[in-house]
Design a protein that fits this description.
alpha+beta, D-Maltodextrin-Binding Protein, domain 2, eight-stranded mixed beta sheet
Length: 269
């Protein structure tokens, strides 16, 4: 049952995510003027665009719902007393963004207690806006979407995430066992976007050995509302610590989990 407070936040987030996408797109069209810095490595970067987009989202939320909590990639965690928390990645796929590659997005999730009740992912470079609300379905530009009910490992594509925080062998071993099983994968540089593509049936599943909450919570909500399966996230981990993420069309779950387990055993040798 949706409450008046839920309705207000959903409508607010719908408009705000689109506004944030427009701001990010304006920066993308003027990349030569962006200030860029490294966080921890050459693949972990942040730009003035990331900071301005997150500042926009955070300030709008603080003005409209001052008692809500907030977790942003750039500004961290602020607790609130309302029971709601916003989880935001201002630009997921910053490396793609900075190299002029269009595979990036703005991701906004709304949590109520420990549960994600709404998710919004905007990819303004291709004019695609994914929205979901618990119990109300998932949509792409206002049209209902569903996961691919016919997909198998052998006939579909998997999204695969990788980053410098995890051992390279954990990814390479999964690629080996996937290819040996007749499967194929893609990696676009944005975990949030690849997860949304599971929701709309472009990809059959997604796996990443470790991902942060702001990269995936919105899109995981989309997948569930599109009829898909998602592993519990963050599982036994703290939300701030991130965790493994696995998601797929429901008939793919067994195959995908078996491949991940086999790859992990190979990686440990």
């Amino acid at each position: 049952m949706h409450t008046t407070e839920d309705d207000a936040r959903y409508d607010f987030a719908h408009a705000l995510t689109l506004e944030a996408g427009e701001l990010a797109l304006a920066h993308f069209r003027n990349l030569e003027a962006l200030q860029v810095e490294e966080k921890k490595s050459g693949q972990d970067v942040v730009s003035i665009a990331d900071r301005e987009v997150e500042d926009l989202i955070r300030s709008r939320i603080a003005a409209a719902f001052p008692d809500d909590g907030f977790l942003g990639e750039e500004t961290g965690l602020t607790d609130g007393k309302s029971g709601y928390r916003w989880v935001v990645d201002p630009i997921d796929g910053t490396s793609c963004f900075l190299h002029g590659y269009r595979e990036w997005c703005v991701s906004v999730a709304l949590m109520k207690g420990d549960e994600t009740v709404a998710g919004f992912v905007c990819q303004p470079t291709v004019d695609e806006f994914f929205t979901a609300r618990k119990g109300a379905g998932a949509f792409l530009n206002g049209k209902p979407i569903k996961v691919d009910a016919r997909a198998t490992i052998a006939n579909a594509l998997l999204g695969l995430g990788a980053n410098v925080r995890i051992p390279a062998r954990s990814v390479s071993c999964f690629v080996e066992v996937l290819l040996e099983a007749g499967g194929m994968f893609i990696r676009s540089g944005s975990g949030a976007l690849m997860l949304t593509h599971v929701a709309c049936g472009r990809l059959a599943g997604y796996y990443e050995p470790h991902i942060n909450a702001w990269d995936c919570l919105a899109a995981l909500c989309l997948i569930r509302e599109a009829g898909g399966w998602t592993a519990d996230f963050p599982g036994s981990n703290d939300l701030m610590a991130g965790a493994k993420v696995v998601a797929s069309a429901p008939q793919m779950r067994g195959e995908l989990e078996a491949l991940i387990e086999f790859a992990a055993s190979r990686a440990s040798l």
